[in-house]
Automatic annotation (TrEMBL):
One Pfam assignment: AMP-binding_C_2
Entry-linked InterPro entries: AMP-bd_C_sf, AMP-dep_Lig_C, AMP-dep_synth/lig_dom, ANL_N_sf, PA_CoA_ligase
Molecular function terms from GO: phenylacetate-CoA ligase activity
Name the UniProt record assigns to this protein: Phenylacetate--CoA ligase family protein
Domain AMP-dependent ligase C-terminal span(s) in chain numbering: 343-436
GO terms of biological process kind: phenylacetate catabolic process
Lineage: Bacteria, Bacillati, Bacillota, Bacilli, Bacillales
Residues covered by the AMP-dependent synthetase/ligase domain: 72-294
Superkingdom of origin: Bacteria
Annotated keywords: Ligase
Organism for this UniProt entry: Paenibacillus rhizophilus
Amino acid sequence: MMGDKYWNRELETLPHDELEAYQLVQLREHLQFAYSRSGYYKEAFDLHGVKPVDLNRLEDIRKFPFVNKQIERERQLKKPLLGDMAAVDEEDVVFVSASSGSTGIPTVSPFTKTDFDEYQDVQSRLFWAAGMRPKDRYVHALNFTLFVGGPDVIGAQNLGALCIWAGTVPSERLLFILKEFQPTIIWTTPSYAWYLGETARKQGIDPAKDLAIRTIIVAGEPGGSIEATREAIERLWDAKIVDFYGISDIFGACAGMCEERNGLHIAEDHILVEVINPATLEPVADGERGELVLTTLRKSARPMIRFRTGDIGTFDRQPCSCGRTHGRIHIAGRLDDMFIVSGVNVFPSDIEFVVRNMPELTGEYQVTLSNENYATKYKVSVERAEGNEESSEAIAVKVSERLKTRLGVRPSEVSVLEANVLPRATHKAKRIVDLREQNTPKEASVDHARA
């Protein structure tokens, strides 16, 4: 394996027709397991008038009902701790992660020992594709408290890398670790990778010269797949950015970039991918943007059948020049973060693409949403780059024009601030300030609620 670019050559390069045949066998067994062992799935399938035997081809998954975060939360409350979506007894569960939603009620994601071991093997696969090898020193700078990505460090250990369990320590402490231990790979979010590099420079540390980081794995935000953002962080650190995708309801990272960095290969031996139009719930064509719907194929503690992720992206089944045959996802952002201006769907990642591509700016930005005459308007705040003496008016015009070209809709205002005015993120960046509820007339809010 040491000289091989694949963690599991046979599995990762399986011809796609054979991969789909494997998925079909796994899916049939998985549906039957869920139906026979989970109170929720038996009830849901029966109400929907479908049974596992109705699946004769992969496309037949469309006959089965969706699940989402709300259903997951409700069924957990119905039968605490694991909920009646679980398909095993609690004594078979060895690990749980949890994530909080808008209600603040944590949704638990359980794993049996087999689930957990297989999930860590996928982590090893993604780490290997990212270029990690046993000679590397890896610092795991993710939260260990109930976060599904916390245990992913075990996948790096199983690969043979020297692992430093840093967790979410203060930036000064993390920079101390990076200086003293000289790790070659780190995992964090794109916004924090930028913040940490800027913090290092303020402390007189040149990330590119004084530290040994050569690969930065990022996840949790679309920035790692936005070329301008990726290049800006790479220049700061003189390191390669590799984007991962994970979801707590399934398992940690389940997709990641290969050396080509043209999308994220998803572990199709564990997950069946659909992309749907979130309005019509109908499938979209390959390469067309829609909501990702994921179905587990092997996770027994709590199967997830047609889980609506709320993530907007595309799925590409075309062969990758790296030789891997598993399809690639491209994430644009969260459905929750999307806003509509004059009939146009806008994602923060589209705005970031513009801002990060302008050398006149620092790359930081914030979007403020408001209601004007019962219509959504968006204002963009940016920072001028240090040393840029161009007038604020001229910069604002450039930003406005480029946003109009990229998005099709112009911002109502562009505010140009001095460098280092906007808040920096130490985890996931909060780019949206939504004031629409505050400036919507009360009668409009009431009418909308009744509608």
